[in-house]
Amino acid sequence: MYNKHKSRLILMGWVFLGLLGVLLLSIGLSSFMYDIVIKYRTSIKVIFSIVGIFIISFSINKSFHSIINGVKKTNINGNISRSEINNIIYRERILSKGPKVVVIGGGTGLSVLLRGLKEYTSNITAIVTVADDGGGSGVLREDLGMLPPGDIRSCILALANTEPTMEKLLQYRFDEGILKGQNFGNLFLAAMNEIYGSFEMAIKETSNVLAVTGKVLPMTLEDVTLYAELENGYIIKGESEIPLKSKELSSKIKKVYMEPTVSYPLIEAVVAIKEADIIVLGPGSLYTSVIPNLLVNNIVDTIYEAKGTKVYITNVMTQPGETEGYTALDHVDSILKHSKEDFLDYCIVNVQEIPEETLKKYTFDGSEPVILGDKDEETLNSKGIKLIKGNLIDIKKDYIRHDALELSRILIEMAKKKA
Description:
2 domains, seven-stranded parallel sheet, globular
């Protein structure tokens, strides 16, 4: 970290020297200098111009070498060729020109997608739910009075450009002692929150430390609590309790809402949504990760009025206590129920078959693939929602996830058409 900071200071020094050269060259060529030193106008102007050109050339050369040295220091062996430097610079230039993508949600689904998106564009804004109240995040939320860091941490790491060892450290979960169950990354964010006295600043500074591509923003800075009303009229309090109680009572979720009822999004989030080429909801838990973001004041209208294409990505599998028996259309209908009838432009659904051996583990827990019902596509089209079907699964260690690269490719192509 010290070397990285030192490299930045050195680079800034050479840039400043370059600006000085530009200033001297400007003075040397200016008619103002001619009027001030009319007696020695020719010699002084020539001297200033030559010195300015020399300093500019020298500073450009030194700046380039500072960049090379800085990149070398991020490499374990420090061995990196000029062609590799050119590739890095070229890649950064290409990614910086990529479409503006806003992804809204939370949980594992969102972080998986972000890992794919950063391969196509650096103009990414992840807007993450803060309704989580379970696990280590819930403990920190209760003990320290801070917003839950879990989903935020996962998204920061997904967009981070850091060494594998650092990622392992920030993902490490203690399994013994007083810290049992706590994630080191969550504790790091908690410490940053205490240092800066602001959860928003804690996220920004952590993102800077980990060289995050794009931005990660909480949907709101309010301390919100998620509630669910079941079809039998029972009210459940707390994000972590919703799927458990719904399953226990064998009653489906009718709707979800938040308290306090007044909570506002970050200005940065609103600006990002307005400027986005594409706005993506999901993938993620329908009622506890995606929809909670839509409950923040004015956010539905902000998304609705934005110029970008609005897309919803259904989960690959249903979730016990949340979406048991749901087809793709059921997922979409829930989104529309908590927003507006013509809220979405596209819905992306996986149609790839899942190997039987992998599927057994999920069906044992009560999950099943999210499928298209017989009339789902026809009904979606009647609502003005175009359906995109694809082979979108990636199975690692018997865990079913979206294929982040293929899903990102589809989204980027859609965004480019809009841009």
